[in-house]
Amino acid sequence: MKQKMMRTVIVSLIPLIFSSIYFFGWRTLILLGIVTIAGLTTEWIFAKRYNRKVSEAIFVSCILYTMTLPPATPYWIAIIGIIFGIIFGKEVFGGFGKNVFNPALVARAFVYVCFPAPLTIEWSKSALGFPGGFSTYITEGVEAVSQATPMLLFRDTGKMASLMDLLIGNVSGSIGETSSILIILAGVYLVYKKVASWQIMTGVLVGFTGLSSILYLLGNSQIPSPIFGVLAGGLLFGAVFMATDPISAPKTKEGKWIYGILIGVITVVIRGYALFAGGMMFAILIANTFAPIIDEGVNAYKKHKKESKAKKEEVAI
């Protein structure tokens, strides 16, 4: 099934795929290939069973899921994750266009909960200089807290990584979530192509920076600087690629703002007060649950407002 929108998303992800090889080595590309084969096979089985065509969205789901994994994630865990995500994040709802949750996030959340050690402890250092990771299978593993991901480093020591390193991507982390500048450029491209909702992206940033600024200024030690929080922990990646999924997000303009702000606020709460250093992944899945209700509420309000206006005009006449 050809889908122009999905191809545009894939194009926006190409720079992140190449940067992941540079930062962490060729294993990231091999991991992506294995995940794509597993995901495509899973969808093909269901498509054949129910006489449907395989959608191009499967490639987007596989890429996004892979980009959220640590570089050293065991292949078998990655495979289990994408199979679970496609089946329980999409196929059980009837296939493409009917899913309530983002399949890539369902897959990521499943492996995160089931296999916490390789998903939260085993990180890889970011390569420096030329040729970087292009000359190795995978970069050296992290052995100390000081070399862990920016959010884990902050939670364990209170130290914040350099903002310049966060912008460029010279930090440990998930495969495609380290380079903030490339994610921002991808977001601009998707908005320009009218593929992703700028209201949702902006809403996420408004909700996140608003609540984190208040808590940070109040002296809450669990909450880092809002700027650091935006650039670290996959917030931008989630805002640009995951939250804007047109299937699992609200359809109304007002609903998109509410949805985005909700994600940003929940992310701050999870990061600061829950066991998870990230939080964006769970925030989007929680917001996915409320997306249909948000649209219903917005439409009901519009209908009520329209009826009230009509009644006032009748009284005036």
Automatic annotation (TrEMBL):
Pfam family, one: NQR2_RnfD_RnfE
Keywords, sorted A to Z: Flavoprotein, FMN, Membrane, Phosphoprotein, Translocase, Transmembrane, Transmembrane helix, Transport
UniProt keyword Phosphoprotein, yes or no: yes
Regions that span the bilayer: 29-47, 54-69, 75-93, 100-121, 167-191, 198-219, 225-244, 256-274, 280-301
Superkingdom to which the source organism belongs: Bacteria
Translocase keyword on record: yes
InterPro entries documented for this protein: NqrB/RnfD, RnfD_bac
Biological processes annotated in GO: electron transport chain; transmembrane transport
Single GO cellular component term: plasma membrane
PANTHER family xref list: ELECTRON TRANSPORT COMPLEX PROTEIN RNFD (PTHR30578), NA(+)-TRANSLOCATING NADH-QUINONE REDUCTASE SUBUNIT B (PTHR30578:SF1)
Protein name: RnfABCDGE type electron transport complex subunit D
